[in-house]
Every structure is written in C-alpha cells, then in structure tokens.
C-alpha cells in the first residue's frame, strides 16, 4: 500500500476519534439543559393541544363568559397581555 494512502487512513482515523470525543463532550455538557428542553416541549405540546381542541376551548370560554363575566374579563385581560408579550418576544428573535 502506498505511504500516502496509509497516512490518509491514519489521519481519517484520528479525526474520527476526535469527533467521537467532541460528540461525547457535547452530550455531557448538553445534559445541563435537559430540564429546559423538557419544559419547552411541554409548552409546545400544550399549544398544539390547544390548536387541535379549539372548539372545546371556545365552548368553555363562552360558558365562562355567561356564568362568570368578571372572571372571564379578568382572564381575557391576562390573555391579551400574554399575547402582546408573545408578539414582542417574536419581534426580538430574528
């Protein structure tokens, strides 16, 4: 076998070993973010559930408006503020 090919094979092997070490280090360091990722996943799943069940949520909101108008107004105000905060946060993130 040519010495150049042997050298290239050895270099490839060293690079693969180095990549494996870096991958392991990244996995080790990323474990600190696991709770954050789980929380984000829960929020995303909640939003997806709300989108899929919009008629149920609308019916509950209508019932709340009829049964307890003041509480409905209070929740509507909170929802409006949350929506405004979400819009502003989206504008900050490119």
Blueprint of the fold:
Elements: H1 3-30, H2 34-52, H3 54-67, H4 69-92
Describe this entry's structure for a reader:
With 94 residues, this protein is an all-alpha fold. Helix content is 90%, strand content 0%. The chain is built from four helices and no strands. The protein has helices at 3-30, 34-52, 54-67, 69-92. Helix 3 (54-67) crosses helix 4. The radius of gyration is 26 Å and the shape is rod-shaped. 0% of the residues are buried.
Which structural traits does this protein have?
94 residues; mainly alpha; 90% helix; rod-shaped
Structural class: mainly alpha
Provide the residue-averaged pLDDT. Answer: 92
Rg, Å, rounded: 26 Å
In percent terms, what proportion of residues is strand?
under 5%
- Based on Cα principal axes, name the global outline: rod-shaped
What is the count of DSSP helices, taking H or I runs of 4+ residues?
Answer: 4
**Which consecutive residue ranges, at least 5 long each, have pLDDT under 50?**
none
Helix content: over 70%
The topology string of helices and strands comes to HHHH
User: Main β-sheet, in a few words?
Assistant: none
| Total number of strands | 0
Q: What separation lies between the terminal Cα atoms?
A: 53 Å
Question: What is this entry, summarized?
Answer:
This protein is mainly alpha-helical and 94 residues long. It has helices at residues 3-30, 34-52, 54-67, 69-92.
